[in-house]
Amino acid sequence: MAFRNHHFYVFCILCVGLSLLSGSIAFDFPIPPGKVCIKNKCSNDSHCNQECKQKGFIKGGNCYSFTEVDYRCCCVKK
């Protein structure tokens, strides 16, 4: 009986650990190399490109998809 309880606790600890790990991975978005992301929402590439140029990024920028619903405006570094 004690053997089964031990396995149950190990299983619970693993589940909690994996849940915490998956949450931290889901919210840690990798920024594309050579880019600076300036805002969380991106409507379209032309608007993002114009916004990047207004902020001083000469080469402009475009939208990047980090998840299925999360698009961000990322500018090319100077």
UniProtKB/TrEMBL annotation:
Domain of life where this protein originates: Eukaryota
Q: Does the keyword Signal apply?
A: yes
Q: Which UniProt keywords apply?
A: Signal
**Would you indicate the residue range of the signal peptide?**
1-26
Q: Can you name this protein?
A: Defensin-like protein 88
